Amino acid sequence: MPQKKILTFLSRSAPYGSDHAQLCLDMALASAVFEQQVNYVFLDDGIYQLLKDQNAESIGAKTLGNALETLELYGIETVLVDAVSLAQRGFSTADLLLPAQPVSRAELSAVLRDSDAVFNL
Amino acid sequence: MSCLHLINRSPVQGALPVCSTLVRGGDGVLFIEDGIYHCLQAELISNLPPDVELYCLREDLLARGVGSRVTETVESINYSRFVELCCEFDKVVSWF
After folding, report:
1. B37 touching A, CB under 8 A?
2. How far is B55 from chain A (nearest CA, A)?
3. Which positions in chain A touch B46 (Cβ < 8 Å)?
4. What is the CA radius of gyration of chain B?
5. Residues of B with CB below 8 A from A14's CB?
6. Dist. CA A80–CA A47, nearest whole Å
7. Which domain holds residue A112?
8. pLDDT per residue over B15-61, tens digit each?
9. How far apart are CA A100 and CA A77, in angstroms?
10. What is the ipTM of this complex?
């Protein structure tokens, strides 16, 4: 049995303007299925994915917020949100649909250092 | 010749910094798609001249869960009004 890798996903895109957010989630879920240790981080515009009350029916798309709830189902327990990105955009953790843990840039930097691979989308 | 300027990218990715230097009185700026995130923080659009009409597309607000957070200087419109605006202004400038 090969050793588990620590994979960190930096999700940095808003939910509906491009498919980056969905693709990043798909990669992380696939990695979790193969029993890798996954860290999922919302950074920059990625924090917009976490806002409550999304309903993409009005623009004929799938609501990404619902899909994010599958992170936990796939055993991805380390879900982090960059505190600076959140504050810059005028939001707090109370606005988020998931209990993502706010982290500082120093903490995030340590997460990257401890990862075997980092995906940035 | 009045212009309707369309902004469709988020504040960190978008072209508003250059667009706002070219907007003139009587123009309009319409925020659509990820551009609507500009309308959640008044300071992001404070560089635009005061005699410019500001609009954002309601469908894009609702999709993103931010329908109730739009700053009061921006008028939220539907697709029909979007079409009307395209006709009311002399031309449309897309900052995609």
Report:
1. yes
2. 17
3. none
4. 12
5. 10, 34, 37, 64
6. 10
7. 6-120
8. 999 999 999 999 999 999 999 999 999 999 999 999 999 999 999 99
9. 9
10. 0.83
